[in-house]
Amino acid sequence: MKPKLLLLVILLIIGGCSGEKRNQFNESQKSEKREIELLPISDEITRAFDLLILENNLIISDPDQEFHFKIFDLESQNLIGKFGKIGDGPCEVQFPSSIQRLSGEKNKVGINNRNSFSYLEFRFGKTRGSLQDSCFLLNGKFDFNYQKFVKISQDRIVGTGLFQSRFAISRIKDNKILGLKGKYPFEKELVGFQYETLAMAFQGDLLVHPSNSWVVSTSRKSFNFDILKFDENGELNQITEKHYWPPSFEGETGDFVQARMKEDNKSGCLSTTVSENFIYILFSGKTAEEKGNESNKIHVYDWDGILQKTIDVNSPLNLISVSENDEFLIGYLDDGKSNIFKIDLN
């Protein structure tokens, strides 16, 4: 065998055996085109950081001087209440606080108050057409390494953050970390980076199934997501890994942990939302120069991570949220002003 040919064979063998095997992404053969409807509530929004549909109400993270969240009735298009009073007192929150659905709850949401490493829940009811809320503050503070977490049972949370593994599981009553699970996507290829930097590079959404203890975790700056399935006791049964490509970044550690994305980096899961049957991912696949922070393409997966269809809408979006029965999506676009859209899925 000639030396050049031998060298080529060796390189192919080495390349084939190193690093994580990437999932091959194929566009779904089932593609749907949908049109958007601009909603009047757009005029009442300054900037949306998060969306959640709860029954026929839309909750928007849009902090003002007094409250963090606004609630709109989607039928009347009226603002029916605000909650999450901004401050440092009991049942008060600071920016940024993320909102989450609670598995098995129709009128209750959880708030991850990240600045104080605390968690609280709000229950909603209507009295004479106005919204009333009741706050439930869980005692204690959670591990400061958590960036995001969701409640999977009465005494368990799972989250992502500055941990040696991709996921951490904690007990609520004493805030004890019970275990670290999973691996960062492509961690063998990214072996030169510390785990804190990887945690920053793979930040994204973390969402719980409406009725089961299933969780999906996504990466915003690369196309990777994981589906975790827990049993009724909060024990992890299965992790389904869907890893397509790593982020392209430079890392720094020290006083500040950073993961600075390079110009050639392609974003992945811009926004994620879930229903009983499906996981909806607003998919980018573009660099920042190509306006990679917005997209009109939504990939729909089942809870086994299998792509079911692709939805193309006639406007780019930054955020999405799906109704519990998969009848419609709400989308958000910041194009210099705030736009709230409805996308009919029927």
From TrEMBL:
Which InterPro entries does the UniProt entry name for this protein?
Answer: Quino_amine_DH_bsu (IPR011044)
One Pfam family it belongs to: TolB_like
SUPFAM superfamilies per the UniProt record, alphabetical: YVTN repeat-like/Quinoprotein amine dehydrogenase (SSF50969)
Highest taxon in the source lineage: Bacteria
Protein name, UniProt field:
TolB-like 6-bladed beta-propeller domain-containing protein
Look up and give the organism this protein is from: Aquiflexum gelatinilyticum
